[in-house]
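G., the chain you wanted modeled:
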Amino acid sequence: MASVGSQLILFIGEDEEGRHVELLQHFTQASFRMVAIPKEEARPSNSRIGFNDKYLAGEAEGLTDL
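Predicted structure as tokens:
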């Protein structure tokens, strides 16, 4: 437990699954629970939005009409 300024209280601990958890509570009883979650696996890069000159010219491989 810690105090952040004169208006906030910070509770630090672990949940039932062993994840790091912080509960930030304002003196007006507004509470925010923050839970650490593992980073998602890397995803393939997103394709760009817009026109593709190769597609328009019919030279692109693997692209199909929708």
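Residues 53-56 form the longest helix (4 residues).

Shout if anything looks off.
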